[in-house]
Amino acid sequence: MRPKSYSTEGIVLARKKYSEADRIISILTRTYGKMSYIAKGVRYPKSRKRGSLEVFSYIKFQAVNIKSIPLITETQMIDSFQEMRKDLRKVSVGYFFTEVIGRITRENETNEELFNILLNTLRKLKYTISLKTLRNDFTYEVLTNLGFWPKGKILQNHDQKLEEVLERNLSTIRIGKKLVS
User: Fold this and answer.
1) Domains of the chain: residue spans and CATH
2) Which residues pair with 94 in a beta bridge?
3) Coiled-coil stretches, from where to where (predicted)?
C-alpha cells in the first residue's frame, strides 16, 4: 500500500489527453511498478512540469493519492535522453521499448529488474549504432525476466514470440523493423 503522499522515480511510458489542460501519464516506477497519474495543467505552454513528462523521460517525482488516480505534484528531470530524440530511428526504437513495457506489465506490479532493463536499454540507445541488436537484446531480456523464455536458450524470432506473449500486434514492431533493418 502506498502512503498518501510519496516520492519515487520512474520512466514515462505514455501520455494521453485528459481534459483541456491535463494529461494522464503512464509511468514505470522503480518502487510501485507501472502506474497511471494525473498531471494537472501540463498542456499549458508555461507549465513547469511539461518538459519532464515527455515519453522516455527518467524523472523523480512526488505524487499524492486522491480518490481515483494519483496526482503528480512535483517533477524533477533526471535524464531526458535528448541525444536519442535527435534521431528518428532511435526514437522509433524507444517507442517500441515503452510500448512493450506498457503492454506486458500490469498496474501496481513492482518489478525493479524490469525497470532497470528499460532504463539501461534507453541509456544504451543514446549511443548505440546497432539498433537491431539492441532491440533484440531488449526483447530477450524482457521475455526471460518475466519467465516467458528460458535463460540461455537462443530466441530466433523475437517479434513473433513477443506478439504471442502479448496476444496482440504491436504497432511499433512494423515501424521499428523497417527503420532498423
Assistant:
1) 5-79 (2.40.50.140), 82-180 (1.20.1440)
2) none
3) none
User: In which residue are the cell numbers 524482457 written?
Assistant: 142
> Which three-class secondary structure state does DSSP give residue 180?
helix
- Cell triple for 131: 539498433
- Residue-wise pLDDT for 110-149, tens only, equals 999 999 999 999 999 988 888 988 988 998 999 898 888 7
Contact of 101 with 34, CB cutoff 8 Å: yes
Residue 134 to residues 10, 49, 82, 125, 144, Cα–Cα distance (Å): 21, 31, 18, 8, 15
Q: Which residues fall within 8 angstroms of residue 112, CB to CB, at 6 or more apart? A: 30, 31
Core vs surface per residue 38-53: b (16+ CB within 10 A) or e: bbbebbeeebebbebb
Residue-averaged pLDDT of the chain? 86
Helix (H) or strand (E) holding 6, with range, is: strand 5-17
What is the model's pLDDT at position 50? 73
Cell of residue 113, nine digits: 529488474
Residue labelled with grid coordinates 541488436: 133
pLDDT tens, position by position, 44-58: 777 777 778 999 999
Consecutive H or E run containing 23: strand 23-29
C-alpha cell at 175: 515501424
What's the gap between Cα 108 and its chain centre? Answer: 14
